């Protein structure tokens, strides 16, 4: 896209994008070649220069300020037809009161529907339909967390009826929208605080799944987040779920079968989905996580999404480390993060 990275550039990520000539990164940074004095798009078809001669800049202006000139082959300062098409489609989606058909969006750009879908997905990480759904869900969440009533908020977000909102979000939502907006009002949450090898662990679950997993916390943490919910300690059905969660912490393995009930922005939930895809015993950098979630420039936002994760371990944010090998941050302390990774067999080369 035409907007440049607002986060600090990750040189490793930029170099990999340039090596792959990845068009999804066009407009997000430029590659400056000191030996030739030019700068290029990441997708430039020219032969790759030596790594030691390359520097990365947020945009053409920064590269020109460093004494470089634009490449005549890839024209890095020009907005490509694909980029214009995607920007136009995004504006149309945002302005529309109802979801727009793929054929209608494609017709505006002069592309076939199938080609436009590929172009849009390559640039945004989402199909046009998925982008529209995420936008409506985000608008609904913003409205529901305000002071207004639930039904008007759903209509204001662009849904034709409340039933469409429930259908579209049944996989994302555990609690109803009204409970979401009112601290768990009308929801029963079972919970327990149990000892583990990592310290006391708090586990709480709605009837949808685990909604809180943390360390060295107690009931007061639940009261702060779910102040309107009915908090019930223990419970027969909850006991089996609790046993599964404890096993996931003490003997790491495949815990995809354990249900979770989480809420977040579209980007946060994209980050959390990617976290759950990281294999046991492996790690990813914050830059890699941001790219996997569909927004390579949002490295800092990916880190914030990690910090907003309320279901530790089951959404394994501990598997994300710094590019240089340092542990980075962790809400429950770096020692717990280190021990979780060691339990999983991750090979660490830490600079912390």
Report what the structure shows.
This protein is of the alpha/beta class. Among the domains are: 11-70, DNA Methylphosphotriester Repair Domain; 132-181, no CATH class; 188-245, Double Stranded RNA Binding Domain; 266-343, Arc Repressor Mutant, subunit A. The chain has 15 helices and ten strands. The protein has a four-stranded mixed beta sheet. Strands 7-6-5-8 form a four-stranded mixed beta sheet, sandwiched between helices. Strands 9-10 form a two-stranded parallel sheet. Strand 1 and strand 2 form a beta hairpin. The two termini are 35 Å apart. Residues 1-7 have low confidence and may be disordered.
Helix coverage percent: 40-55%
CATH level 3 topology of the domain at 266-343:
Arc Repressor Mutant, subunit A
Element-level helix/strand string: HEEEHEHHHHHHHEEEHEHHEHHEH
**CATH architect. name of the domain at 266-343:** Orthogonal Bundle
The CATH class of the domain at 266-343, by name, is Mainly Alpha
Shape: globular
Low-confidence spans: pLDDT under 50, at least 5 residues? 1-7
Rounded to an integer in angstroms, the radius of gyration calculated over CA atoms is 23 Å
How many strand elements?
A: 10
Task: Give the key terms.
Double Stranded RNA Binding Domain; disordered N terminus; alpha/beta; four-stranded mixed sheet; 12% strand; DNA Methylphosphotriester Repair Domain; 42% helix; 352 residues
Q: How are the secondary structure elements laid out?
A:
Layout: H1 11-19, E1 30-33, E2 38-40, E3 54-57, H2 60-65, E4 69-70, H3 81-95, H4 102-109, H5 113-124, H6 128-144, H7 150-156, H8 162-169, H9 177-181, E5 188-196, E6 199-205, E7 210-215, H10 219-225, E8 230-233, H11 236-250, H12 266-277, E9 284-285, H13 286-292, H14 299-307, E10 320-321, H15 334-343
Parallel strand pairs: 2-4, 5-8, 9-10
Antiparallel strand pairs: 1-2, 1-3, 5-6, 6-7
Helix pairs in contact: 3-4, 3-5, 3-6, 4-5, 6-7, 12-14, 13-14
């Amino acid at each position: 896209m035409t907007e440049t990275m607002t986060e600090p550039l990750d040189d490793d990520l930029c170099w990999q994008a340039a090596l792959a000539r990845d068009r999804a990164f066009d407009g997000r940074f430029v590659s400056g070649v000191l030996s030739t004095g030019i700068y290029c798009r990441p997708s430039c078809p020219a032969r790759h220069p030596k790594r030691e001669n390359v520097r990365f800049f947020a945009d053409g202006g920064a590269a020109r300020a460093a004494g470089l000139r634009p490449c005549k082959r890839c024209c890095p300062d020009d907005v490509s037809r694909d980029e214009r098409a995607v920007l136009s489609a995004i504006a149309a989606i945002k302005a529309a009161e109802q979801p727009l058909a793929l054929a209608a969006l494609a017709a505006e750009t002069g592309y076939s529907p199938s080609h436009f879908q590929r172009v849009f997905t390559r640039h945004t990480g989402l199909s046009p339909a998925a982008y529209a759904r995420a936008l409506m869900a985000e608008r609904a969440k913003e409205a529901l967390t305000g002071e207004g009533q639930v039904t008007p908020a759903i209509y204001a977000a662009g849904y034709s009826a409340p039933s469409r909102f429930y259908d579209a979000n049944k996989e994302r939502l555990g609690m109803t929208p009204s409970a979401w907006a009112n601290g768990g009002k009308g929801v029963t949450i079972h919970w327990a605080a149990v000892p583990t090898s990592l310290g006391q662990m708090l586990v709480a679950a709605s009837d949808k799944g685990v909604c809180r997993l943390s360390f060295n916390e107690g009931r007061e943490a639940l009261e702060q987040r779910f102040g309107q919910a009915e908090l019930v300690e223990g419970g027969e059905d909850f006991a089996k779920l609790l046993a599964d969660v404890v096993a996931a912490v003490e003997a790491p393995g495949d815990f995809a079968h354990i249900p979770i009930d989480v809420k977040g922005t579209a980007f946060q939930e994209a980050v959390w989905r990617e976290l759950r895809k990281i294999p046991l015993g492996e790690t990813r950098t914050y830059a890699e996580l941001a790219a996997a979630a569909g927004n390579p420039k949002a490295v800092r936002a990916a880190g914030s999404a990690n910090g907003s994760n309320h279901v530790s371990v089951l959404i394994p944010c501990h598997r994300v480390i710094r590019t240089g090998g340092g542990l980075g941050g962790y809400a429950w302390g770096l020692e717990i993060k280190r021990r979780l990774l060691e339990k999983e067999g991750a090979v660490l080369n830490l600079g912390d």
